[in-house]
Amino acid sequence: MALSNIWHLRTVAESSSKPCYVCYKPTLSVLITPDNKDFFYACRGHLKDRGFCSPVVDEAAKKKEELDREIELVKKEYEEKLAKKKKTKDKKELKEEDQEEKMKEDAAQKEAEKEKDEKIKAISNKKTPSVIDDIPRIYTLHKNFFQMRLDRIRNAEISKRNRERLKNPTAFPSVPSGAL
């Protein structure tokens, strides 16, 4: 019965919503142990409450870090394109300096810059709402609430054991057979 104090957040369908464990408001959020031994419904308000539970990993910071890495990757890619075009530009200047080619190269450079900006905006727009709306997925319960969960499980096991004892006829004493 070693229940760990690690709870994963899951979301259920609208039709499966049940009341919150604390406030009894209907909710779609379920906290469940990794081994699926225990679960309960908790509303988003209580998930944000530090007196009820606390997140194990700050995933919002993790996703922001990923976003920054992707933006850096796009910037590096853009710098490589510029360096490559500059090399070809230098070679072409040595051969002949044609105004039309310069105009085309400038247009291509502006196009590449626009492409870079569009990629960065697309990545930012794609990730930003999820970073803002996303809440952590792994929690630990406050010690009092965790103890309440342990007590509930323990009481359920005790009542199950008592029901089994009552069903077993050998658990009762036999009727006295002696005369007075």
Largest β-sheet summary: 5 strands, antiparallel
Q: Number of helical segments? A: 4
What's the Cα radius of gyration?
A: 32 Å
Are there runs of 5+ residues with pLDDT below 50, and where? Answer: 128-132
- The count of DSSP E runs of length 2 or more, i.e. the number of strands, is 7
Adjacency order of strands in the biggest sheet = 5-4-1-7-6
| Average pLDDT for all residues | 83
Class of secondary structure makeup: alpha+beta
Strand content: 5-15%
Q: What order do the helices and strands follow?
A: EEEEEHEHHEH
Helical proportion? 55-70%
**What coarse outline follows from CA principal-axis ratios?**
rod-shaped
Keywords:
180 residues; alpha+beta; 5-stranded antiparallel beta sheet; 4 helices
Explain this structure:
- The protein has 180 residues and is α+β, with helices and mostly antiparallel strands.
- Helices cover 57% and strands 13% of the residues.
- The protein has helices spanning 44-48, 59-95, 99-133, 143-167, and strands spanning 7-11, 18-19, 26-27, 29-32, 39-41, 53-55, 138-141.
- It is rod-shaped and about 130 Å long.
Would you spell out the secondary-structure blueprint of this structure?
Layout: E1 7-11, E2 18-19, E3 26-27, E4 29-32, E5 39-41, H1 44-48, E6 53-55, H2 59-95, H3 99-133, E7 138-141, H4 143-167
Antiparallel strand pairs: 1-4, 1-7, 2-3, 4-5, 6-7
Helix pairs in contact: 2-3
Short description:
The protein contains four helices and seven strands.
